[in-house]
From TrEMBL:
Lineage, top ranks: Eukaryota, Metazoa, Chordata, Craniata, Vertebrata
Entry's free-text remark on domains: The N- and C-terminal barrels adopt an identical fold despite having only 13% of conserved residues.
Signal peptide: 1-18
Pfam family of the protein (one): LBP_BPI_CETP_C
Any Gene Ontology biological process: defense response to Gram-negative bacterium
Source organism per UniProt: Dicentrarchus labrax (European seabass)
Highest taxon listed in the record's lineage: Eukaryota
Record-linked SMART domains: BPI1, BPI2
Family: Belongs to the BPI/LBP/Plunc superfamily. BPI/LBP family.
Major localisation: secreted
Name assigned to this protein: Bactericidal permeability-increasing protein
Keywords from the UniProt entry: Antibiotic, Antimicrobial, Disulfide bond, Glycoprotein, Immunity, Innate immunity, Secreted, Signal
One of the record's GO cellular component terms: extracellular space
Description of how the protein assembles with itself and partners: Monomer. Homodimer; disulfide-linked.
Amino acid sequence: MFLCCWLALVALIPTTVSINPGVKVKLTEKGLEYGRDLGMATIQQKLKTIKVPDMSGEQRVSPIGKVHYSLTNMHIVNVGLPKSAVDLVPGTGVRLSITNAFISLQGNWRVKYLRIIKDSGSFDLNVNGLTITSSIAIKSDETGRPAVSSVNCAATVSKASIKFHGGASWLYNLFSKFIDKALRNALQNKICPLVADAISDLNPHLKTLNVLAKVDPYAEIEYSMVSSPTVSKSSIDFSLKGEFYNIGKHQEPPFSPKPFTLAPQINNMLYIGVSAFTTNSAAFVYNKAGALSLAITDDMIPQSSPIRLNTRTFGAFIPQIAKRFPGLMMKLLVKTVKDPIITFETNNMTVQAIGTVTAYAIQPNATLSPLFVLNMDTSVSARVYVSGVKLAGAVTLNKMDLTLGTSYVGDFQVGSLDNILQMVLKVVVIPKLNVQLAKGYPLPTLGKMKLVNTQLQVLKDYMLIGTDVQFTG
């Protein structure tokens, strides 16, 4: 990836609907400098492909008289871009400038004079003081991804020096008076189109922006832009939708994103703010898909546990179960009945989930006999972290409150089941959930992008990821 991979993050994409973002990204000056370094290598390679046309003409050179000359087979041997800068133009966009650049080329020369005298050889040409400035325009393509183009490009060459091999000294007079300006003009006319091509060639890479990223069989997350970015002197801030949807069905949740502002930090190249709206939209999607349920049987309980999912164990606390269903195995169905609610406070992320636990006795013919339904209100603490280019997590149980919903075996003390149900949550439900959370969901990325030196903070109403970036291809 190159300079414009960064610039894709600042695309001035017009939108028809203005909504608050679920995800915000800040690109700092440090990030722009890294992007500039990568971009120079691309432009340098492009300028090495300059094709200088053959040149010929006639000029009168004292004391030789009229000289017919031709320069042929000119080709670039070296391009240097020692000094460059990317400047943010507040409220406008980005300006790329390259100064003190140079181009070296080689070619062949041939002259004819005094009607019958011919001479030929080779030459080395050094063009110095090359300056290139270009403004880069970015817009949305038909897929909602960024597309880039170069506008208002200008290239100037201040001087050129030549060394002829095999020729007489008067050739330098011919060059300095007549050929120098023509060669510099020819080069200047070639540079801006190649710079424009170098930028345009990045558009296929920009199509890798994961505007709609699949998470798993249930969900995908959308990272389309919801407003034009804000360009300041020191950074570029832009807003992404950052919303989970069921695969192939984009139904809005019954809540909207709230405005939030990223903390003013500049040590990393990139800052990504993920709001509570984004994570709560995930909870909405998974609950709607029926993915937040788990059937638990005894074979899922560790063999070392003295507590088994059978009517004997539960009969010790609810005697009527053992009497009516002696010697049977049991099944528990744990599921949410409302969308879990995720909240962010400073250094603390919690998930509040309301669900039910339905207990069944498994008859010898595999039919299920309902025993009771418990209402369960649980709170878990979440630890979030960045894994590769994904945001992953793990949860631990804070507390669990049980109340009786329905009993098919008569009245009993619900509190007597607290230890059993906490054990089931801790050794079965939460580990299963953590396996899924460890897979993570994709952050907004471009191409083969790696996140390095990553730090994550949980703040009020959002989490902030500070990271540097490497492009590996």
